[in-house]
Amino acid sequence: MANIISDETMEYVGILAKLELSGEEKEQAKKDMGNMLDYIDMLNELDTEGVEPMSHVFPVKNVFREDVAVNREEREQILANAPAVKEGAFKVPKTVE
Amino acid sequence: MNLMSLTALELGKKIQTGEVTSMEAAKAALSQIKRVEEICHCYVTVEEETVLKKAEETDRKLRKKELTGPLAGVPVAVKDNICTEGVRTTCGSRMLYNFKPTYTAEAVLNLEKAGAVVIGKTNMDEFAMGSTTETSFFGPTKNPWNPEHVPGGSSGGSCAAVAAEECSYALGSDTGGSIRQPSSFCGVVGLKPTYGTVSRYGLIAYGSSLDQIGPVAKNVADCAAVLETVASYDPKDSTSVKRKDCDFTSALTEDVKGLRIGIPKDYFGEGLDTEVKESILKAAEVLEENGAVLKEFDLSLVKYAIPAYYIIASAEASSNLARFDGVKYGYRTKEYDGLHNMYKKSRSEGFGTEVKRRIMLGSFVLSSGYYDAYYLKALKTKALIKQAFDRAFAACDVILAPAAPTTAPKLGESLQDPIQMYLGDIYTVAVNLAGLPGITVPCGMDHQGLPVGMQLIGDCFQEKKILRAAYAFERTGCYRRCPAAETSDERGL
Questions:
Q1: Is the pTM of this model over 0.80?
Q2: Mean pLDDT for chain A?
Q3: Domain residue extents for chain A
């Protein structure tokens, strides 16, 4: 295997992805990611010198609209989905000491 | 008469003439669900009361002649990553096990305006990441042709539900083949439209630059009629395209005389199952006998589509799935220590293995130091793939290809080796990268009695050409009814 994923890299990816893997999961994930990177390294065979990266197939531009609210009042329905609610707002653990 | 054995348009016609009511159609669908769901498990949610109320309301509108469209009163199944107001929408994930959207997706609204009755929400690979519908938190869907085999994925629930006649047609979504591949495995017709044709508003995003909603049905005419109904310009989807040529049913003529059909030699080489290959090449001959002109050519870059796709799709997924944090909706872990720990634990427990795998890969390829080597490289590869298709479509109208290298594998065989599973997407992902339309039509059976599907790919906005070819081929008689769909009355028991 050409790509060896270090514990530090996994730690870093965990921070970016906001995921916390168990020991066993982590080992498997390291292996999977290494295999996948070995596989996608195949793209290096391809000469892309001077090729413009294409994010969208069509020349899409920003779509603007007037800054007018069109949604209806649906606080109650939205909050009905929340795991925890307090005084008409989403409840989260304390974030500022 | 078994109403579920009819195509959507046949049933719609009977409803228009008053021979059948929407209520009778809905009840027929519900009773078929009761009969076969235990074996196939196509649905995550079916709310019987909601369905019956909707059917009653639809009948009222039909009587007042407020609904006169060809799909009015016809039962439709909707993939569970497409939002339906007040009806649970899970994405096949524990993360959204109890999520009830506060609005309905634009595509479904368009169907409802035309009088469609949503019968239930269909099972899928978690967040549409998978090719077998085995990664669903709610358990796998089985292939109605043989329940030991997978239905394909990720729209496996929608395609199996159509084959098992648990709905008259369905909506799926296709990011890398998720409509076309399961349609092939289940012996039904599925269409992925040109990117931007159907609004993504209310489709829970996986890879936003690749995702499209599309129809799954028993035949090509149904697909065309459904696409005509769901396609619309929508200012709420910033990538929505204003099209003036959405009269897709006008393309349904048997005539393929002079239609230039390209056969990419590099799609028929190593890795393609012999029986699948023979079925598809035979279908090409049938089209030739009907006046089409076959042309072999090299598409090139075929093997680079999968790595480019998995980089782009995972990168977009890592960003799109950042919204699931256990605060606004869905799953929240029981015990946690502070906000960040709550995020991490909720996500780690709420997402399944394949979803986590792709979020991590996506986070990695976008991270500083790797962005150019992976993500940018993939976007450049995408540009080259698009150019390859442009060259191909300068010389032909339609590309004919397999939808998958094999017929449906057995349950439990695919998930062990992720890369092997990704390779199964070889004939479908390039179409998404290039934003093209593609349709799968059944074209034969293998020795195990499992369906084979042929894929027809068109240039951007050329749905009519692939519909024309698909329709002409279908008229030669390719649709086989899945035996599991037959009721005991029909079997004469």
A1: yes
A2: 91
A3: 7-45
